[in-house]
TrEMBL record:
InterPro entries, A to Z: dTDP_Gluc_deHydtase, NAD(P)-bd_dom, NAD(P)-bd_dom_sf
Cofactor(s) listed: NAD(+)
Similarity-based family: Belongs to the NAD(P)-dependent epimerase/dehydratase family. dTDP-glucose dehydratase subfamily.
GO molecular function: dTDP-glucose 4,6-dehydratase activity
The protein's Enzyme Commission number: 4.2.1.46
Catalytic activity annotation: dTDP-alpha-D-glucose = dTDP-4-dehydro-6-deoxy-alpha-D-glucose + H2O
Keywords carried by this UniProt record: Lyase, NAD
Annotated ranges, domain NAD(P)-binding: 5-321
Entry keyword annotation includes Metal-binding: no
Organism: uncultured Desulfobacterium sp
Record-linked Pfam families: GDP_Man_Dehyd
Name assigned to this protein: dTDP-glucose 4,6-dehydratase
UniProt record, GO biological process: nucleotide-sugar metabolic process
Amino acid sequence: MKNILVTGGCGFIGSNFIRYLFSETDFNGRVVNIDKLTYAGNPENLAGIKEAFPNRYFFNKTDICNLSELTGLFETFEIDAICHFAAESHVDRSITNPGDFIHSNIEGTFCLLELARQNKNKLELFHHVSTDEVFGSLGKSGYFTETTPYNPSSPYSASKASSDHLIRAYSVTYGVPATISNCSNNYGPYQFPEKLIPLMILNAIEDKALPVYGEGINIRDWLYVEDHCKAIWAIMQHGRRGETYNIGGGCEKRNIDIVNIICELVDKLIPDTNTAPKKNLITFVKDRPGHDLRYAMDFSKLKNELNWTPAETFESGIEKTIKWYIENTNWISRVKSGEYKQWMKQQYEDRK
Ligand code: NAD
Ligand code: TYD
């Protein structure tokens, strides 16, 4: 792979992936990052990359549904691989605004697949980044494997499930060389503060209420974002074409336990505040409709075939993450635009 088209590279995982590719791997080709720059996309997530790699990093503000623009970029940069992150990614927004998810996650993936189909002979790989949420909810026991039937509950997970099906169909029908990864919940630097972990960190730092949905007993399997990036790169290099790989953290935690850990660490890292303990800020609010109870990944296929396991423990990863948010107040004030404030205000009204 010499010239990789990365979609959604200005978002949370995409920007971490591009940073990882340039700083931690022996990849010496070009990255062309296309991103529509929705509220979740922020070019500052890649600050310094263009300066450090002027001939190897390129950015183009484009919607992935714009096939003619994509075709031009594909030819200009002699693209031979696609790594597809671009998506609307927040379950709560998919409940209030499902249309955006159909557009970006389903039509967008379709459009990229058409590009791949038209250029099949020039393409080494189309890697599609997906989620464990396509499998629906687990009960108290068991794990999702690569053969678990799809059973999505939210417009977000349904749109990601559709995109996975399209990838598989183009691989089988047209021979597009594709791989899919389904990963559990990520956390780490550059995550937009609408998702559980960054929202709780920022609200704790700012002495704002910590809104826990329902009773806080829902379980997610947490993975540090750089471990996800390592897994994607391992699959892109050595994964078998046409295959799906589950990626997980082996780290199941209830939401309330996550919030308590964050409170304790913020108390420890910012000891001189007037309002410690931060646990006093925890507020139980109305539950999310269709809230999946539990996700947990069996990632033994990835471990056995590609020798991947998570390197970061939750304890080390969450402390690093909290320190990053404490040290990056400029980034935080910039992502918290008017749109963010409006969304948070609406969330508060809806959950009262
Ligand atoms: P994010 O919301 O932080 O970033 C998404 C990026 O895609 C943004 O930069 C946005 O501007 C861009 N984008 C959205 N629609 C676009 C369009 N139509 N055209 C071009 N660009 C567009 O999301 P993330 O958390 O970084 O997730 C990246 C991918 O990983 C998604 O496909 C998501 O489903 C998947 N995933 C996320 C997690 C997680 O915990 N965050 C876990 C598993 C899988
Ligand atoms: P989230 O970060 O939105 O990821 P996902 O829904 O994709 O798993 O939410 C993680 C869990 O945290 C989920 O069970 C919902 C819960 N949650 C809260 O309790 N409060 C919040 O403010 C948010 C954003 C999420």
